[in-house]
Design brief:
Number of helices: 3
Oligomer: single chain
Strand content: 25-35%
Helix content: 10-25%
Largest sheet: 4 strands, mixed
Shape: globular
């Protein structure tokens, strides 16, 4: 196995529209690596960006199969997903053109990164960032 194929797990995002979620993450550059079932409306889709994987899961199907009532639809921002890209402005432009809400336009940060925030079709915050290899002396305090 190569480094990109090895994974210990991934976050699962619950969604009411799995195809819309998959299209959003494909716009960033994720590629689909798994779909179940393959010939019907999917219940699970796994996507990969380099060594980072996410799984999308149909919240209704998972609630039905597990009996866990609290899955999906929390209504709050309890996490974000950070995706490191080559060009924040280009990626955010493509997402904006595809209809994704941009909640924070690209901006430079004191620690040298450039980032922006968008939301996926379920309203999850997705930070699009480009890491800088420069030490800017920012202590974060």
């Amino acid at each position: 196995m190569t480094g990109d194929e090895i994974r210990a797990g991934q976050p699962t995002l619950f969604t009411g529209d799995i195809e819309a979620m998959a299209a959003f993450y494909r716009t960033i550059g994720f590629v689909e690596t798994y779909r179940f079932p393959t010939k019907e409306e999917p219940v699970f889709i796994t996507l990969r960006w380099s060594a980072f994987h996410i799984t999308l899961a149909d919240e209704t199907a998972v609630r039905r199969s597990t009996g866990l009532p609290g899955l999906g639809g929390s209504g709050g921002h309890r996490f974000d997903i950070t995706v490191i890209v080559e060009d924040v402005d280009k990626t955010v432009g493509a997402l904006r053109e595809a209809g994704a809400p941009v909640v924070l336009d690209p901006r430079d940060q004191p620690w040298g990164d450039r980032h922006a925030y968008v939301t996926d079709p379920e309203g999850n915050y997705v930070q699009i960032t480009t890491h800088s290899n420069h030490d800017h002396g920012w202590s974060g305090t």
